[in-house]
Structure formats: C-alpha cells, structure tokens
Amino acid sequence: MDKLLNENLPIYMQIMDKIRAAIVSGELAAGAKVASVRELAEDFGVNPNTMQRALAELEREGLLISERTTGRFVTTDTAIIDQVRKEAAEKIVSEFLQKMKGLGFSKEQIEEFFREIDMSDGFGEAM
After folding, report:
1. In this structure, what CATH number is given to the domain that contains residue 37?
2. Is residue 57 part of a domain?
3. Residue 1: what pLDDT?
4. What pLDDT does 89 receive?
5. Are both 72 and 93 inside the same structural domain?
6. Do residues 56 and 13 touch, judged by C-beta distance below 8 A?
7. Where is the chain membrane-spanning (predicted)?
8. How far is the C-alpha of 17 from the C-alpha of 39, rounded, in Å?
C-alpha cells in the first residue's frame, strides 16, 4: 500500500481509506486475515495506537471483524463490501463532476465528453 501523504487528513483516516480501498478492490479478499496491529503499524510507519484506532473504526463500519483468539478478518458480508464500493464510486464521480464544472464544462459537455471516449476496453482513454 502507498505511503500516507495528505497533511489535511488525520493519519488514522488515511489508513482507513487505504485499507477500505484494498477491501473493495479485492486486494484484501472477503474473509481474509488481516495482519496484526504491530505489523500494519510498521508497514505504514505509524504508532500502533494510530493503527489500532483505524482498525477499530473499520470494525465499527463492519468491514473488519475481530475474533478474540485468532485476530481480525475482512467481513464475509459482501453486501457491506458492495455498499462501501458504491459509496466510494459515488464520491469519485461527485469529485470528478465538481472538477469538470470548475473547468467550465456544462452537464451536456460532460455527457458529450463521455460519449467521445472509446469505452471498448472498459477503461476508455481520454484524449
């Protein structure tokens, strides 16, 4: 996972975002065991207390499940994962639309922009 760089967002929230992204992308599969707090803290270069806070919040969201004797696991509830994936996609689209509007594009021009992109491979290349 990439290093944390956003100085305007608390570190534990950046960690949550990275782990959340790994889960919704399938990098961390449903049911997968998550590394220990200490291992993750070392990987991210943060204090174990910071990592514990991030993981506890992800548990509260339902993305992680803690089993007392065996550690933490990614939830197997795919509905939760799908909902988080949808929310992440909505956030990306919303940010994109705001940036396009900031560049002076109208709704119609944004729609035309997408019609012009070659989507044949599913990931169209702009310009």
Report:
1. 1.10.10.10
2. yes
3. 52
4. 95
5. no
6. no
7. none
8. 18
For residue 54, being part of any structural domain is answered with yes
Q: SS3 for 72?
A: strand
Structure tokens at 121: 């491979």
Same-domain status, 49 and 89: no
**Structure confidence at residue 63 (pLDDT):** 97
Compute CA distances 11 → 36, 41, 64, 65, whole Å. Answer: 18, 11, 19, 21
CB contact set of 70 (below 8 Å; sequence gap of 6+): 33
Of 79, 80, 50, the residue nearest 62 (C-alpha) = 80
Range of the domain at 46: 11-76
The answer to whether the beta carbons of residues 16 and 50 sit under 8 Å apart is no
pLDDT per position as a tens digit, 30-79: 999 999 999 999 999 999 999 999 999 999 999 999 998 999 999 999 99
In which residue are the tokens 């109208």 written? 106
Which residue carries 């961390």 as its tokens? 28
Is 2 contained in some domain?
Answer: no
Tell me, yes or no, whether 48 and 21 share the same domain. Answer: yes
